[in-house]
Amino acid sequence: MLSILAAGGLLFAFEHATIAGKMVLLLLAIGSIFSWSIMITKLRVIQYAKKQNARFRTAFRQDRQPLRLFEKNARFPGSPNFNVYRAGCQELTFQLLGSAEVDETFRARLEIADKISPAQMHAVNAAMERAVGETALGLESQMILLATAVSGSPFLGLLGTVWGVMDTFTDVAMAGSPNLTTMAPGVSGALITTVTALCVAIPAMFGYNFLVTSIRGMVVEMDNFAAELASEFEHRYVDHSARVSEFRR
Prior knowledge:
Blueprint (H helix, E strand, L loop, with lengths): L1 H14 L3 H44 L5 H4 L8 H18 L8 H7 L5 H23 L2 H33 L4 H58 L3 H8 L1
Helix pairs in contact: 1-8, 2-7, 2-8, 4-6, 4-8, 6-8, 7-8
């Protein structure tokens, strides 16, 4: 019963909304479509990324050779950690072998290659940091539209309400009969924009907060993995005696 009354009230308010109020409602409807599409798309991307990250971590830790997956040309599309891994392996291979190409002689060339210096390892760390930043930007793309829906919708709804109330008082003043029966339809039509704006902003706010928290967690996970991978690289492929000789000089 309450839902029927509420629906009837919204219908009554919409029928008595001004042209400006209906234009605001149209803008809010478009904003709602965009915000929901972004939330659903980003949620799917994050869930898929988490699943791929789990697959990649399992494969990576099965073998203590950090370049094994790179040598096998393994692919984990959608995994942020794999993006960091691929960038680090490409730069490390380039520093070790002079080329990032993987062919049938890759393992043999890797076994006879000299270790790299700490300065060259800095280039590998920089490549992984770039990968973290680029992947984070990709995960955060279109979030500005969701933030705009959260912050802008209430103001747009308030604009429609103030405009509608202003028109209502103008009509009452021109009619010269200030009574509740005259004012109620106009005020009701004005308030529907605020109600609609809140219906747009509230889900967008919860979705934005959830997505931002999830993305930040994935960025921290990428940073931790980059540090873990750098430690593996330094242990196996970096000649630390080069740093000692540099200090002696």
